[in-house]
């Protein structure tokens, strides 16, 4: 998540431009066991508003991460924000290979398809088709190694203008078009996230 619910991020791009980090060669992850499944409870100002699930299938050489995030914000009994994000992300030979996402925010649908082809990442998104550098990855958060290069918004398909810094051994701060922190456990698995929303509220992910 943090892929772009309006209540969960800063401005209209999550979590479109260029990542302000030194460019790296094609980013690869060390082959190994498939990451374990992850489930998060999502809170807005300490009120539970939904859950975010990531399921991994395959092996270290080729695996798929399937994400479902569902959120519902109410004022009293009245729903004011409904959100569902579904993503299927594949990795092959230690590198991001493809991503397809479908997102519905208050009835408005978005669809993104991204695929690594040769020396580039081709993205087909609501704003049109674009080509990104081969070291670009979707900001899907579950793998902290993505912070070594440019990242794009999985919900909109746009390259993000952000600054990323490691502020603690297991914590990364993201500043710019999105303001948030991602925390990982000692094994490198995504543990928690905290973001400032458009309306000034605080949104938190807590792994369960």
Describe the protein's architecture and organization:
The chain has one domain. The protein is 0% helix and 56% strand. It has strands at 38-44, 47-58, 62-75, 78-92, 95-105, 108-117, 120-125, 128-133, 137-138, 151-152, 162-168, 171-176, 180-184, 190-196, 202-207. The protein has a 13-stranded antiparallel sheet, with no helix packed on it. It has a two-stranded parallel sheet with strand order 9-10. The two termini are 16 Å apart. Mean pLDDT is 86; it is low at 3-29.
Low-pLDDT residue spans: 3-29
Q: Name the helicity range.
A: under 10%
Q: What's the helix-strand series?
A: EEEEEEEEEEEEEEE
| Major β-sheet annotation | 13 strands, antiparallel
Principal-axes geometry comes out as globular
| Integer-rounded radius of gyration | 16 Å
Distance N to C terminus: 16 Å
Which properties best describe this structure?
single chain; 208 residues; mainly beta; 13-stranded antiparallel sheet; two-stranded parallel sheet; globular; disordered N terminus
Short characterization:
With 208 residues, this protein is mainly β. It has strands at 38-44, 47-58, 62-75, 78-92, 95-105, 108-117, 120-125, 128-133, 137-138, 151-152, 162-168, 171-176, 180-184, 190-196, 202-207.
Helix-strand blueprint:
Layout: E1 38-44, E2 47-58, E3 62-75, E4 78-92, E5 95-105, E6 108-117, E7 120-125, E8 128-133, E9 137-138, E10 151-152, E11 162-168, E12 171-176, E13 180-184, E14 190-196, E15 202-207
Parallel strand pairs: 9-10
Antiparallel strand pairs: 1-2, 1-15, 2-3, 3-4, 4-5, 5-6, 6-7, 7-8, 11-12, 12-13, 13-14, 14-15
